[in-house]
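Risk register update: the risk of archive-format incompatibility is retired. Evidence:
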Amino acid sequence: MTDTPAAPENAAQIRRTTLYLTLAQVPSGKVVTYGQLAEMAGLGRAARWVGRALSQLPDDTKLPWHRVLGAGGRISLPVGSPSGDEQRARLRTEGISVLNNRVDIQRHGWRPVEHSG
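Archived output:
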């Protein structure tokens, strides 16, 4: 069958598209963890996969990748790295305070139920 080899790539593309559509909904001034984003996108416990997918985004992406954090609000990107510094600057621009390389999830965490309808 000619469509069999394309099936895995198609499934992977669907996963990425679902992830990107979910990420695009995270509002300014709010954050989610990799695990929460995976769950919201219907991808189960795929936090590490989410991290890898986001690390492969093009530099000029409009997606708010900077709003995605590690467990407990930890910023995963190293201090002093270009992308880490950019993430911290973007978060601060949105009014999110970063203290000791962490964001207060209770204060800044996005809960879609509270923001819908």
